[in-house]
Design goal:
251 residues, alpha/beta, TIM Barrel, globular
Length: 251
């Protein structure tokens, strides 16, 4: 299982928002490029970069410049999302060298456009499903729809999507533990590859997600727990590759 450190960008800085709330922002670094280099040096195989300003329809020039520098200065794949609304947005990110482009709100509000984008860019396109109480949230988590996350996952699977990033936003940034049951359900019912996200607090969470690999969950985004020092990236990488006691077969 792959551990993917998160770098959330707001105003060109590396931040974390608790449950996506701009009023609950913690700034971790004014230089996200240095943060990216740190994760690479510590063994990261991929980075997850979020354009928070873009997701909230705010000016995001500084974030996109930071993204460009990160891609230029590091040598590992980058997964990027936030404010990706049009085919031109996807083209620009693809030209820039983004490996996976995460589409959220547009996937729900304009499924015809999503189909066209999938047709052009294939598995480069990943759908981000952010949910609260099982329902899909839109536009930087500011709006809660009536669409069930599981139903939407099944819908995009039928459209040709290969992977989703699933986030329980009630847990994101809360260090309260990942929603294992919901993550397993959406993976099994959709048949998609799933990158899990939201609420990782301890190495136990990593072990728990690792046990979901047979269901299709093959990667995990970790943010606040790394920045707050709950564990190191090295420890997270080890946990993703080794069994804990509950994984082991009894003698």
């Amino acid at each position: 299982m792959i551990i993917i450190p998160a770098i959330d960008l707001r105003g060109g800085r590396c931040v974390r928002l608790t449950q996506g709330k701009v009023t609950a922002e913690t700034i971790y670094s004014d230089n996200p490029v240095n943060v990216a280099k740190r994760w690479v040096e510590e063994g990261a195989e991929m980075l997850h970069i979020v354009n928070l300003d873009g997701a909230m329809n705010q000016k995001d020039v500084q974030n996109l410049k930071a993204l460009e520098r990160i891609i230029y200065d590091t040598s590992i794949p980058v997964q990027f999302g936030g404010g990706v609304r049009t085919r031109d947005d996807v083209r620009r990110l693809d030209d820039l060298g983004v490996t996976r482009i995460v589409i959220g709100t547009t996937a729900i509000e304009n499924p015809v456009l999503l189909e066209h984008i999938i047709g052009e860019f294939g598995t480069t396109v990943v759908v981000g499903i952010d949910a609260r109480d099982g329902r899909v949230a839109l536009r930087g988590w500011e709006k809660l729809s009536s669409i069930l996350a599981v139903d939407f996952a099944q819908r995009v699977a039928e459209m040709g999507v290969d992977r989703i990033v699933y986030t329980d936003i009630a847990r994101d940034g809360m260090l309260s533990g990942i929603n294992i049951d919901a993550t397993q359900e959406i993976a099994e019912l959709s048949g998609l590859k799933v990158t899990a996200s939201g609420g990782v607090a301890s190495l136990d969470d990593i072990h728990a997600v690792r046990r979901l690999q047979p269901s299709g969950v093959d990667s995990l985004i970790v943010g606040k727990a790394l920045y707050e020092g709950a564990f190191s990236l090295g420890e997270a990488l080890d946990a993703a590759e080794t069994d804990d006691e509950t994984d082991e077969d009894p003698d």
